[in-house]
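Internal tracking record. Fields below are filled automatically when a chain is submitted to the structure queue. Please do not edit lines marked as system-generated. If the sequence contains nonstandard residues, flag them in the REMARKS field before resubmitting.
Queue: standard
Priority: normal
Entity type: single polypeptide chain
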Amino acid sequence: MNKIKKVRILMGMTQKDVAKQIGITQAMYSMIENEKRKPSKETAAKIEEMFGVSLFFVD
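SYSTEM-GENERATED OUTPUT FOLLOWS
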């Protein structure tokens, strides 16, 4: 399990919850979380802000 997923689960959130709050589809968030797509800089910044982590250091 990757670290972004671990943080999301620890926060008690679903992929759909996160996607809705950052303004993308659940499918897109799933691809980002499963490392099939890289987030845009804007989306990465929103994820970092929501989770309080830097994506640069997550992997």
